[in-house]
Amino acid sequence: MTLKITIPGKQSGSTFSQLRLFLCFLMYCWVLADPACGYFLKNCTIRGNLSDTSNMKVLCYNRNLEVIPIAIPRKVSNLDLAMNNISKIEKLDFKGLSNLKILNMSRNQISQVDDGALGHLEALQELGLAHNRLTTLSDHLFQGLANLSLLHLDNNLIATISSSSFQLLSSLKTVNLTKNNLYNMKEVQPIVQLPHLHELYIGSNRFTSFQSQEISNTSIELRLLDLSRNPLGIFRITADVLPYLEVLDIAYCGQLGHMEWDVLDRSFLRNVNRLNLSGIEMSFERMGMVLQTVNSSLVHLRLHDLVNSSRLKIKALTDIACRIPTLSVLRLEYNNIGNLSEEFLQSCKHLTEVDISDTGLTQLSDFSFRSIEQLSALKLGHNRLSFVPKATKNLPTLKILDLSFNIINKLGCSDFSNLTELTQLIIFHNQIPNLLGCVFQDLKELRILKMGSNKILTLNDAFMNALHKLEALNLAGNKLSSIRKGEFKSLTSLKTLLLFDNQIASMEDGAFEGLVNLTELKLGSNKITQIGIRNTVLMGLPLLKSLDISCNYITYVNDDKLNPPPFSHLTSLENLRIFSQRHKGLSHLPINFLEGLKSLLSFQAGSLNIKELYPDTFIYTPRLWFLDISKNEFTALTPKLFHPIPRLNSLYLTKARIQSLDFLIGANLSRVTLLQVSKNDITVVNETVLRSLPALTYLDMQDNAFTCGCSDAWFVQWIESDNQTQVVGAGEFTCNYPADLKDTKLLDVELQFCIVRLGLYYYISTTCLVLLTLIASFAYHFLKWQVIYGYYLFLAFLYDTKQRNKHTPHGCQYDAFISYNAHDEPWVLRELLPELEGEQGWKLCLHHRDFQPGKPIIDNIMDGIYGSRKTICVISRRYLESEWCSREIQVASFRLFDEQKDVLILVFLEEIPTHQLSPYHRMRKLVKRRTYLSWPRAGVHTGVFWQQLRLALETKDGSSEENPILSGVQAL
Ligand SMILES: *[C@@H]1O[C@H](CO)[C@@H](O)[C@H](O)[C@H]1NC(C)=O
Ligand SMILES: *[C@@H]1O[C@H](CO)[C@@H](O)[C@H](O)[C@H]1NC(C)=O
Ligand SMILES: *[C@@H]1O[C@H](CO)[C@@H](O)[C@H](O)[C@H]1NC(C)=O
């Protein structure tokens, strides 16, 4: 879980940044509340799932870490921090990891461990601190590790061990202090005194003596003591302190070719059964004494690498050792024996295992092993034998014969003829060019035959009539070029057949017939170009579970149906590997390539240069569980491809040129727990994609081309908070775009900002709404008239639209609508009406006479105005004050400039100075720019007045351009 408080930088509007800070603070609080809420750990990989505590591993090895990562899941049981650059363990580094059983911190630079830093690890059983720089083991170092049983401290610089540092490690069984700077045996005294300490490795230190009184006065529990590679000048045991010791390693000890051996009583080492005296610098006589000391219990003796000893001395030592009646294993590796004479092992009657590997053997006497009555394992590897020595032929009890890494260049018919008990024959890495039909015919009990890395060209009939019990045959790394029909006919028990790394180009039909128990067949790295023309090549393998034909030369020119399909007989096959065909790759995967593989669980088809997969490719393999189609050239896949394989659990699509994960949507992959799509060109991962994989626990998306924009914000948040899916290496995801973020880490980009921004949008819109309301109320208060006017303008507009929608042109019922105030009614009735209706014959609309009862007044006004050609406004002071009148004039003037019709005729009943018109903004403008009629000015000459009115009423409707009266109002 990473934690970031975003301090706003560039875009700091103060509200904005404060808000952002606040939201970030909220997020921070939320993160603090549950420090281990996510399944994501920077620089580490989690194995196992969060709910199963018994098995959770956190792997952080080899990541250049300099400090111990924070927020390690508390339930972890195995934590691997090896191979980093950590130099210090601090007091709280492992706080709360009370479930941890295994902690590996090997190969770091640790030189300092705070007191009590490991004390939190109550459950710890195994602690690895090897290959560090510890110099001292202090008093409180291991405090609290009451369950610790295995402690690795090898390869440090430890010179002193505090007397109480091991005090409370009551469960400790094994301590490895190999390769340190210890020189005083007293330092290890507190360790060997522990009640359960069984194994102590203190080899490769600077001890110059081992004296029993330095480590204890009473008997201790030690079972194994490794003192090898110390410059021990003396080994002295004066009391019965090691009664349980079983394994003693004093290889490569001694000082200046010299080491004293002083064990007072033979019985002090009465239980030692394994002894390593390899490379010891000790006189021959003393070595004899050593062997005498353990001569009632020794079973296993190593006498490797006695450089300074002649063959004779080795022979003499061997004689002493072989007289120990309990001895059964003698290992003489890395000595220079060269020629094994008949006498060399003459006294070794009781041995069951002899190892004379790497001793420069070129010859063995035919009877070298004759006296060994019960020899069961003979190891002659890494020598110079050019043929199977006769000495190995008559060993009826032999079970294991190892002749690997010699130069044997032929096998004869009688080479193994009397080894009827042999179960393992290892002739790996020799120079055998071919086999004879008779060579294995007597190996009736053979189970394992390893003949890899030879030069075998043909098998002849070697496996046609022998080895009925053989279970594993390794012929890898030879020169076989073809497999003939029935070549392995008699191997009816064979389970594993390894033929990889040969030159096999052709396999006859029935090549594997008879292998009725075969479960594993490896044919990788050969020259196979097709899997048989007919489909009988792989016939007769009813139990085959695993087939590997990767790294061959199989190619298809198109994806047409194969007839017959290549694997149709392999109904038990569970695992098919065909990846990496050389030359052109497979290029195309034929539609029915997998036909018949109804048991297939795992299909590995990476590096095949396939561009497309036919949607029905997997209809034959309904049980498919594991699919690796990495390193192909897909660019895109269809969801349909996955419909036939609903059980798919693991999908590997690394380096497949995938640009988007959208194909997962609707692919029905509800059981996929692992998805690896690293090294592709994916830029964005969205929620829908990941929701379509409900069981996903492991996602590897390393090395993709993230855009690092807000489109990734959801993904980043999900990585950090989802507690089911672990996104491997998420800390290393790098941005590819935009240019200024290139090579920045995705998780370091401040994308929380995107999520914050959503909140910001809400905030801004609410603010706007509030401001708008405020402005509206202010406007209403201070600009009331403009607002009211605007309102009526709007109503008029609505009316107009309504009228227009009715498609009824205003059929003019009236010549003029008279708009007047009730106070001016007498004038209207007495002067205007008689003149216009009576004298001039116009049809007028008067509200007291012509308005329809029951209709809203505003509608009546509208109908009146729009139903008349002209509107005559009879203007007086009272008229201007009246609400309805101003509405009338407004509607009329709206019509004026809405319809571009000159409908208004203004008749002033009294003189009104223009400044008094000011609240009636519109009126003032009209008056300013238009001609109008004035009753008072007419005086007694009413005739002119009425004549002007008639003219005004007679004017036709017309656009403003044509009408000189209107042109003045254009600016409105
Ligand atoms: C994570 O690993 C990288 C390199 O692998 C290293 O540079 C970085 O410091 C590590 N991160 C932490 C938090 O230690
Ligand atoms: C002890 O440490 C040495 C040196 O690193 C290593 O070779 C050996 O395998 C270790 N033994 C055990 C039992 O861990
Ligand atoms: C195999 O053993 C038999 C009887 O022990 C013996 O007669 C025969 O010579 C042996 N064969 C070889 C090749 O040594």
UniProtKB/TrEMBL annotation:
InterPro entries: Leu-rich_rpt (IPR001611), Leu-rich_rpt_typical-subtyp (IPR003591), LRR_dom_sf (IPR032675), TIR_dom (IPR000157), Toll_tir_struct_dom_sf (IPR035897). One of its GO terms (molecular function) is signaling receptor activity. Residues 812-953 form the TIR domain. Keywords: Glycoprotein, Immunity, Inflammatory response, Innate immunity, Leucine-rich repeat, Membrane, Receptor, Repeat, Signal, Transmembrane, Transmembrane helix. SUPFAM superfamilies: L domain-like, Toll/Interleukin receptor TIR domain. It is a single-pass type I membrane protein. GO terms for biological process: inflammatory response; innate immune response; toll-like receptor signaling pathway. Residues 1-33 form the signal peptide. Gene3D superfamilies: Ribonuclease Inhibitor, Toll/interleukin-1 receptor homology (TIR) domain. Pfam families: LRR_6, LRR_8, TIR. The chain crosses the membrane at residues 760-783. One of its GO terms (cellular component) is plasma membrane. It is found in: Membrane. PROSITE patterns: LRR, TIR. Its main location: membrane. Belongs to the Toll-like receptor family. This is Toll-like receptor 13. It comes from Salvelinus namaycush (Lake trout). The gene is LOC120051326.
